[in-house]
Amino acid sequence: MRYYQVGEEGASRLVLETDGDVYDLTAANSSVEAFGDLARAASIADTDIDEIASRLTDSAPTLSAETATDSLQTPVHADEVWAAGVTYHISEKARQEESTKPEMYLDVYEADRPEVFLKATPNRLVGPDDAVGIRNDSEWDVPEPELGVVLYKGDIVGYTVGNDMSSRSIEGENPLYLPQAKVYDRCCSIGPCVRSASSLDDPHDLEMWMTIQRDGETMYEDTTSTGEMVRTVHELVDCYTDHNAVPDLSVLLTGTALVPDEGFTLRDDDVVDIGIEDIGRLSNDVTTV
Amino acid sequence: MRYYQVGEEGASRLVLETDGDVYDLTAANSSVEAFGDLARAASIADTDIDEIASRLTDSAPTLSAETATDSLQTPVHADEVWAAGVTYHISEKARQEESTKPEMYLDVYEADRPEVFLKATPNRLVGPDDAVGIRNDSEWDVPEPELGVVLYKGDIVGYTVGNDMSSRSIEGENPLYLPQAKVYDRCCSIGPCVRSASSLDDPHDLEMWMTIQRDGETMYEDTTSTGEMVRTVHELVDCYTDHNAVPDLSVLLTGTALVPDEGFTLRDDDVVDIGIEDIGRLSNDVTTV
Amino acid sequence: MRYYQVGEEGASRLVLETDGDVYDLTAANSSVEAFGDLARAASIADTDIDEIASRLTDSAPTLSAETATDSLQTPVHADEVWAAGVTYHISEKARQEESTKPEMYLDVYEADRPEVFLKATPNRLVGPDDAVGIRNDSEWDVPEPELGVVLYKGDIVGYTVGNDMSSRSIEGENPLYLPQAKVYDRCCSIGPCVRSASSLDDPHDLEMWMTIQRDGETMYEDTTSTGEMVRTVHELVDCYTDHNAVPDLSVLLTGTALVPDEGFTLRDDDVVDIGIEDIGRLSNDVTTV
Amino acid sequence: MRYYQVGEEGASRLVLETDGDVYDLTAANSSVEAFGDLARAASIADTDIDEIASRLTDSAPTLSAETATDSLQTPVHADEVWAAGVTYHISEKARQEESTKPEMYLDVYEADRPEVFLKATPNRLVGPDDAVGIRNDSEWDVPEPELGVVLYKGDIVGYTVGNDMSSRSIEGENPLYLPQAKVYDRCCSIGPCVRSASSLDDPHDLEMWMTIQRDGETMYEDTTSTGEMVRTVHELVDCYTDHNAVPDLSVLLTGTALVPDEGFTLRDDDVVDIGIEDIGRLSNDVTTV
What we know:
Chains A, B, C, D: Pfam families: FAA_hydrolase. Chains A, B, C, D: Belongs to the FAH family. Chain A has 289 residues and is of the alpha+beta class. In chain A, 20% of the residues lie in helices and 36% in strands. Chain A has helices at 25-28, 35-45, 49-57, 92-98, 103-110, 168-173, 178-182, 233-241, and strands at 2-6, 13-18, 21-24, 62-63, 72-73, 80-85, 115-120, 125-126, 132-134, 141-142, 145-152, 155-164, 166-167, 188-196, 207-214, 217-225, 249-253, 271-276, 280-288. Chain A has two domains: 2-69, no CATH class; 80-288, Fumarylacetoacetate hydrolase, domain 2 (Alpha-Beta Complex). Chain A contains eight helices and 19 strands. The model of chain A has no long low-confidence stretch (mean pLDDT 95).
C-alpha cells in the first residue's frame, strides 16, 4: 500500500493508493492527518499500518487516480534524514579505475562499518515537484537517486524514493568538506509516497532508474537494481540508530549506483526524475541556492 | 552581560548576571522565558539585547549569585549546532609532525574554505552539568573545547562555551566516518551562559582552558587563547550561513586548539571542565551511550 | 481500567491501574505519553482503549500501588471543560421550597433542553491535589461534585470526577453573572484518573460523595447516586456537541446533587474531597484568587 | 496604525496600513509573522507597537491598497474572546418598554458589576469574509456589532470590530441557556484589522454602524456611537481580567446598541457588515451550523 500526502497547505490530507484505488484517509478519520499518525497508532495498538488503513477504507471516500499525483507534499514529516554512501557493488574494473581516486571510498566499501551521515533537517528537505538546490559556490553538482527507508522510532515502517543532492566539486576538494557538499539549502527531496514495509516483498530486489531532462532533452538515463547493494537495509539502519538519539520519524537514504558521467553537472531548471519499482517516481526541478 | 537559563523543568527562567548582580528576567516580564525571546524582541524592535535586559532589571527581583550556577539548563534553545575544524594556528614544527597524518587537515588549514559541519540537533545536545556521551563502539574519545557563536537568524548575538565530543578512533579510521565520530547521542554540550555580543570586546582575544578530572585526579589541563585562531568568527559564520537554510536560533562552534595527548581517552564519570574568559565555565561528566 | 497521569513535569507518564496492579504504560511504549495518545490510537486503529492498554501491560514495568496516588496530574489534557446544571432529581418538597427561588431553575428542570455551559479552558483547570480557587470578590463559594464524561472528538471514552467551583453570591445576584460565577482562575479540577467507558457498567448507577474538611474538622459530608440524574449522559453530551465546534479532547461535567447548606462557604485551606464509585477520589485544597 | 493579517494559509503575513500606505512587515523582518509578535516584542522591549512598526517600514516593501482588503484573516490570533452585555445607554422610554422583559437586564444596567462572559475559543472564531454561524435549533438569530478591545497579557494594545452572534430564541427561553445562545460553532468574528491603541484618540467616541444584506437588498441599517456606552472600556477589561487567568492574547467585545427589530432573523447567505470609525469594516456571510 502506498501513502501520499496531498493538497494545499492548511487542507492537506493523507491518501492511500492500493490496487489502483485511491482513498482519502483523512476524510475517513480526522485524527489521521499524516503518515506519522498511522505509524504512531500502529505502534501503540501493536498492529500493522496497512491493517489500520484497510479498515479506514470502509468509510473513506474514493478519489480520482490523479489525486495521488497532484499537489504532492513530502509524504512523511521526517524529523531528520540520514544517508549512506558507497553501498553499491563496485566492479573489479571500476575498482581499478577508482585507484586514481581517494582510497577511502574503497576502504569503506570493504570495511565492516558503513558510511552514514546526517543529510537533512526538515527546513532543508523539499517535497515532490519542488525544486532541489545546487550551491552557487559549486561547479559540479549531481543528484543521487536512492532507496529511502522510513523509520518510526528506529523501526522500519516503509520505503520511499530519495534524492541526495551532492556537490562533487566541494566533496572532491577535501573529504572534510563532505558535510558542506551534502547539507545545504534544499539539499534533499523524498517522495512521492511511502510504500508500507509490510506490503513490499524485498527491498533488495527493486529496479531503480533516473533521468535528467534539460529543455526537453534527456541528458542522462540509466537503470540499476537495489539488488546491487552490498549492504542490507537493516545493516544500514543499525549503523544509523546504534549509539544515536533517534527521533520519532526519520528517513535513511541507502546510497546510490546511478551517477552521471564526470562531464555532467546540473543546471537551473533541469528536471530530475527518480523511479523505484513498486514505490513510485520522484520528480524535482533544480534551482541555485 | 551574561544570560543563564536556570531552574527545574516547568519552572525554568532566564536570569541575567551583570557586574555580579543576578536578576530574574522572567519574573520581570513573563514574556521573557528564554534567551531567544530577548533575541527575537531585539530583532523586531531593532534594538540591543542588553539594552532591553537593562530596562528589565528595573522591575526584576535580584537573586543570589548561586542562582547563576545551580540548576543550569542549555542557555539557548538552539535549533541546531554546527561546528568548525582546523581553525587554530598550527606551528611549523607541528606541521612537520603532522606530515605523518592525513594531508587533508593541512589542506583545510591552508585553503580558503573552512571546514564546517552539522554537529548536533536539539535531541543530541545536553546542558551544563549533564553527561556528554562517548560511543560504546569507539576506543578513543576526547572532548573538544570551543568558543561557540550564538546566532539569531544568522546574525551574531552572543557567545557561549561548547564541547564538541569526538571519537578519534572512528574519525581516524576513515574521513568518511567523520559524521559518525561527531554526531551521536549526547555528542555536544553548550553553556553555562550566553555572553551578549555587544558586551564582549573581542572574541578573538579570550583565554580558553580545559581540565579533565578522573576520580579527583587531574588527567589533563591546558590553556590557549582564541587569539590563536587563524579564521575569524565572521568568516566561519559566513561559511555556515551561505547557501544554507538557517533556523531562528543556532550555535556555531569555532574549533579547538586544546587536545589531550594521543594516549588519553575519556571514560565514564570523567569530568570535563571548559572555561573561556569573560564567558564562563562549562562542566560535564561523561557517560557511555 | 483506570488511567492516571503521574510524575513531575518533564518526566510525566501514563499509568494504568487494573485489579490492583499498576503499570507504567509510557515505559512500555514511549509513544504513549498521555491518555489522549491511547484515545487517538484507539480511534485510528478502530479498537478499544482497554484492549490496547492490556497489550501494553505485557511489556510494561509494574509500579507500587502508591504510584497511582502520588504526584497526580490532570488525568486528561482536555482542550476544554463544559458543565451541565440542574440535572438531578428535585423532590416535590424541594420544588415547593424552590418556589421562593428563581423560576428558571425549575424551568430548566422540566424543559427538553438541558443547561450546559463552557466551564473551563486548560489555563483555568487544576489537577488533583492542586488548589481550586474562590474569587476574592465573592462571599459565598461552594464546590460542586460531578461525574465527568471524557470525550475524544465528541465520543465518550471515559469518566472522571470533577469539581465545578461556583460563586453562589455572584450567580445569585443576577443570572447574567453566571459565567463570572463559573469561569475564573482555578475554577475547575478533574481527576484522579480516567475510568475507561468500556470498563464501567453503568454511569447512571454510581455512588457519589463529598466531604469538606477545615482544620481537620469535617464541615460537610453527604452522599448521593448518579442514579438520581434526570438526564442521561448521552443527552447531555448531545446538547454539548450539537451545533458546536468540539475539540479533540474534552470533558463534560454532568451536574450535581450535593450542595452544602446555605450557611456554608469555602475558605482558604479547606480541603474538598469528591469520590465516585468505581472511578476514584479527587482531592483539592482551596485558595483565594 | 492598522494591522491586517493577509494571504493564504502557509504564506500569511502581517501588513501595516498607515496614511493610505500599505507595508509588508513580515517581508521587512521574518520574525514578525503576526500582530502578537509585535505586541510581545513591544512588551519585552518596553516600547510602543507603532514605534516598532514605523521603524520596520524603512525596509518594508509597500503593497497595493487592495492588499489590506483581500485574503483577510483573523487579525489577531486571540487565545480567547470574551464579551460584555447591556453596556449601552437605554433611554427612559426603552426602559419602560423593557419593563415587560426580564428585569435582570435592567438590573445589570444599573449594577456596579458588568455582565461579561467567555464568548469564543479559537476553534469557534472566524475571520473577515468567512461565514458566521446560526444554530440549526434556533429560530431567532441576530448579529451583535461590537467594539473589540485587543489585549496582550491583559493590557490594552488595540481595537478591532467584533460580531457577537446570538440566538435570541434560546437566550429568551431561559437565561440559563445564555451560554448555548452565545457559544457554538462559528459564533464569533473579529476584524478586519487591529487598530493600535496608541493611535486611537478615544475609543468612547467612535461611530459604529451595521447593515444586513439579503439577495442584494438591505434588510437592516443603523448607526450608533461608542459614546453611547455607559461603561468604560477599562471598567469592562478589569471585570474580565480580575480574578481570572488571562492568556497572552485575547479580545474583549464591549457590547452593542444596534439590534434588528424583533421581527428580523438572519438566514443563510445573508451578509452582515459592521463598521467602526477609524478601525474598519468587518464583513461576514451567514451559514447554518
